[in-house]
Amino acid sequence: MDITITKAKRTKCWIERMKTKDKTVLGEILNLIIRGEKDIDKIVIKCNVLEWSYIHIELWKDNELELVLSITSSLIVNDIFKEYLAQCSFINCVNYLMKKTNKEIKQRVIMILNLCLVNDTFRKKCIESNIQKVIVHSFKRESTQFYYQNVSYFCKLYLLKKEYLSDDQINDIRRFYIRAICSKSTPIILDGLNCFYYFATKMFFALSPTTEFLHRLSELVHHKNSSLSRLASNFASFYQIE
């Protein structure tokens, strides 16, 4: 049998089954990806399974959402798929997905964003959609170092195109690093302070501190970690903090 005909029939079958909310299609697609099916990215784009999935995002349970995101992240191998993802409803779903309590879902969303932000069309759509707000606000004092690193990488990718960002968007990123400095994790605090210092001195954002920042800096000057206390002391000299 002609393999082209087989793929065409399968694509048509997927489209029809998705219309009936048959979620087993997702498992079939992921299995084909794992098996290394040729042109699976083009087939998924053609049958628009992911677009349907994101348009009807509220239909999915958390384990099904993880499946949708797994398929998405597995197919980000070239600019064609990144362009597709920029045009489909994924970016519009970021706010909804980042408000889920499931940490794995949040992690996957940020990782997908980080892989796609190198694409100009995708990055422009993200900036227009103002998604940085929900991303940076998802970081909490108790967040893991791995989660912090992913959010921080997202912020760095954003700042690479600082000229396209509004003052509010830049301030969201600035506040993220201030929040990192207030973390419970010493490695996060150290990296957050380093990043804040770098971006502030390179004029990516204002050096003007908040009351919370000044209070935290005065604490860090006396931190038991010598690298951290030394960096905090150097930074504190700007504000004449003892």
Write out key terms for the chains shown.
single chain; mainly alpha; 0% strand; disordered N terminus
Can you put this structure into words, describing what you see?
The protein is mainly alpha-helical and 242 residues long. The protein has 2 domains: 1-127; 130-242. The protein contains 15 helices and no strands. It has helices at 3-19, 24-34, 40-47, 49-55, 62-74, 79-87, 90-98, 103-116, 120-129, 132-137, 145-159, 167-181, 186-201, 211-220, 226-236. α5 (62-74) packs parallel to α8 (103-116), α8 (103-116) packs parallel to α11 (145-159) and α11 (145-159) packs antiparallel against α12 (167-181). The longest helix has 17 residues, at 3-19. The chain is elongated and about 70 Å long.
Write the layout of secondary structure elements.
Elements: H1 3-19, H2 24-34, H3 40-47, H4 49-55, H5 62-74, H6 79-87, H7 90-98, H8 103-116, H9 120-129, H10 132-137, H11 145-159, H12 167-181, H13 186-201, H14 211-220, H15 226-236
What characterizes the major β-sheet?
none
**Oligomeric state:** single chain
Number of DSSP strand runs: 0
| Tally of structural domains | 2
Instruction: Tell me the Rg in angstroms.
Output: 22 Å
Structural class: mainly alpha
What's the order of the H and E elements? HHHHHHHHHHHHHHH
Q: What is the terminal-to-terminal distance?
A: 79 Å
- How many distinct helices? 15
User: Beta-strand percentage?
Assistant: under 5%
Extract low-pLDDT stretches. 1-5
| Average pLDDT score | 87
Helix content percent band: over 70%
Q: What's the overall geometry?
A: elongated
